Structures are given as structure tokens and as C-alpha cells.
Amino acid sequence: MEIKNIVVSFPHPDDESFGTAGLIYESNQKNIPVTYLCGTLGEMGRNMGIPPIANRESLADIRKKELKDACEHLGIDYQLLGYRDKAMEFENKTQMAEHIKSILEEIKPSHVVTHYPGHGVHPDHNAQGAATIEAVRLMEPDKRPVVWAAAISHNYIEELGNPDVVIDAEKNFEFKMDAIMQHKSQAEGMLEKMEEPSEDIMIKELKERLGKEEFYIWHFNE
Amino acid sequence: MKPIELEKVKDILKSYQNKDVYVHVETTNGAYASHFGNKGVNVGAYIRNAKVKYIESDLKGESGAFRAGLKLEAGWIYAEGLSDYEVTESNQLLLAGHDQAGRLTVALQISEQPFK
Ligand SMILES: [Zn+2]
Fold first, then answer.
1. What is the spatial order of strands in the sheet that A77-80 belongs to?
2. Based on the number of CB atoms within 10 Å of its own CB, is A56 exposed (0-12), middle (13-18) or buried (19 or more)?
3. Contact: B109, A48; criterion CB under 8 Å
4. How close does chain A come to B103, measured CA to CA in Å?
């Protein structure tokens, strides 16, 4: 199906940059609008910046601003869903699906990107992925957008086979890294953790980890 | 946040004694501990906006690793590994510990109004 407009549905400010900056770059080239539905503010995150620029109470506002800056850089719209970080899996799944469905019915995307439930690693990723897929399932079959599910677990290829869609984000890697770096409170923690001996090796390693954006087309069995 | 000043923070803790206060208590090793680097299972817990009244309080230990204890009428609140503090504009006391990479490892926060 032709891509007309895309909704990206992930729970944290920075998931959009790590997971879909390459897809967004290509969409921009083709004038395909993208909207990010961000589930939480990542306000229970552990990274506070190096040196710390945030504390538990200021982190929500800081990450909200980082999300705004990242979406400006990416050239996309975003909406906040207002859930609490780390608590999404405990919400009523049907209510969350209805909430997401009501937004999808307004935006009417041709494609929806979310996490592959069970392969999202973070419980919020799995919860929002499941709720987003449920939201689409609740729609009339002929009105459903195509769902692209992102799997990031260690064993996803073994369990799911090869992905259906592969975006080469390495071609436009600077665009992607600039988006990630808008999330200053989070990105520095990630770079620090790598402890690579040189910048060249670090960039090589980053390209290996983030250079490909892979998705599985979700099949609804009636 | 800035490094905990023992006497100062002790006094702030005492200032909330025998009052109804809201506490946020948290500890975590991160949501990705088991995904990156095989550091075992993710462990973490938080309580946000539990309403309590404590009758005694103290802060022990040394720079970089203080322990706080709040004695309740029927129990205790305890946190260790606290290194930094801040009093926010809305008069909330934030105590926290961080690892070498600046990541939060533990938090104990007290406020007369519920946290957002
Ligand atoms: Zn995330």
C-alpha cells in the first residue's frame, strides 16, 4: 500500500529518534507527513545527563523540551498521550487502545509504526505496541492502516524471521544522530556507556546498532 | 542538585517531622540492565505520593553515601546511597544518589504537597 502519512506510536521521548529518524528522513524527502504519538514523558528515566542537568522532579519538563526540539529537527508533529513512564503495562489495555484509536481516526494515517509486542525489551514499549495494534484491530478492516512493528530484542530474527521493511538510516546518519542528540539528558548516558577507544570506532559501533531500522508488517487474523 | 551538607539536610528533614507529608521513594538499576551487558535482572521499586507522618528522622554516613531513616508511628522509611540534595521552588526536599555516569540509583523526596 502506498505510504500517504505515518503515525509513529512509541512511549518515550527519544524512541522516535532512535527508532525512526531514518524513516522520517526518507518520508520528508517524499513529502509524507509523520506524527509522533509519545506515550509518556520518560519522567522515570535514570539518566540525568552528564554532568546531571536534571533531577527526578525536573526531568519531565526537560524531556518534554527535548522532545519538542527533536521533533523540530525531524520536521514532524507530535502529540503527548499523557501516560506515566514505567506504568503503561498496568493501565487498562482496552481503554488505552480506545484512546489511541480515537487519535488514529482523526489523523487517518496510511501507516502506523509501533513496537512489536514481546520484542520491545522495555515494558512500556511492549504495552504501547500492544495497545496500538489493538487500536488498529478495533477499526473496520477496510479502514485499518498498515502496521509496521519494530522488534529490538536480542532474539527477534530467530523468532520472527527476517523483517519485511528495512530502512537504511546509515545513508543519512548525521540527521539521525543530530535527532538523538536533541535528547541531551539521555544521549550522553548512552555514549558514555560505550567506552569505545576512539571516535571512529564509536561511530562504527553506533552505525551497527542504529544504522538499520527494521519493521515487520503486522497481520490481523480474523 | 548539590552534594549533601549533613547538618543542613538533617535540619530540613526535622522540619517535616510530625506533619502530614507526601514521599517519593525509589531505587533502580535501569530498565535495560538485563538487555545491555548481562548485568542480571532489572530491579527497581518506587512509591510516589505515599502520605505519611514521621516522628523521628536522621541522616548518617559520609559524603557520597548517606543513609536516611524516617521513623513512622508503625514503621520505617529507609534509603541509602544518597549523595545529592536540592530544595525545589515549591519547597520539596529531593535527596538522590547517582552512579559514576550520573544516572539516578536511589531517591528519597519529601513534600507537604503531592508531587506532580
Ligand atoms: Zn523507549
1. A77-80, A34-38, A6-10, A111-115, A146-150, A212-217, A165-168
2. buried
3. no
4. 4
Residue B81 confidence (pLDDT) above 70: yes
The single residue listed with the C-alpha cell 535540619 is B11
CA nearest to B109, candidates A185, A56, A192: A56
Cα A109 to ligand 1 centre (Å): 22
Q: What is the pLDDT of residues A46-99, one digit of tens each?
A: 999 888 889 999 999 999 999 999 999 999 999 999 999 999 999 999 999 999
Has this prediction a pTM greater than 0.95? no
Q: Do A46 and B26 touch (CB under 8 A)?
A: no
What CATH number does domain B2-111 carry, 3.40.190.10, 3.40.50.300, 2.40.10.240, 2.70.180.10? Answer: 2.70.180.10
B115 contacts A46? CB cut-off 8 A: no
Which class is domain A6-217? alpha beta
As a whole number, mean pLDDT of residues A98-109 equals 98
